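We close this part of the discussion by returning to an individual protein. The sequence in question and its structure tokens are set out directly beneath this paragraph:
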Amino acid sequence: MDDTAAALAESLVAAYRLHAAGRLAALGIPAPPGWDGALEAGEGWLAGALEELLAMPFARQPRGPLEVFQEAMRFPTAALDAAGAPPADRDPAAIDALPGDRFDLAPASSRDLGEEVWARHLAWGAAKAGALSRPVVVLVSADLLDASRVEAEAAAAGYRCEVWRSLPAEIGRQPAIALVDLVHRQADDAVRSLSAAGVRVIAFGPHVDDLAMVRARSLGAAEALPRSRFFASVRDLLLPVV
């Protein structure tokens, strides 16, 4: 998680209890039994869910951080339900958007959580938009050290790097280049499927495994190189985006 995402997560978690208390006061409902425990559970769940979400590459994030915050309102909602509190009077659009938010606790916008949260949400959104506008290079590898090396070279060349430790069920946005580590258990499938989709595939593997490199070329790889040659020439292989 980078600094922008970490700052957003921190501010969202800090706003959680204050927002819930403010909504309860606005509804004119006294705090029900178990309210504090519900907020504690919701705050803990929110922190963990945001950490998991924002650690993912932007393109793999299935939803936004505000949606996670909205879901975290299910904890105080359950406390109000258990106490028999009357549901809020909500308009049809709000019901369609958040049918489970019976007490109108979930914020419609990050601005409802204060200027600091809103500013950090905007900064995170700008970072996401900027990252997603760059062409993608995919690295199919389970080696964390290789991933860090390739990510640095890709960023310098103007790409956004996605590391696939396993093949996704579907290829979303088509990458410009795919780099496939031939020791990966799904290397053959990766070379075959990505090259068939029209992606330029560059495979690399142990210099003693000539058969793997021949097989990679037969499956559609544009190039197949020993590891040493691959990492010596990765800057040339990832031609700068112009």
Q: What stands out?
A: Residues 134-237 form a domain with the Rossmann fold fold (CATH 3.40.50.2300). The chain has a mean pLDDT of 90.
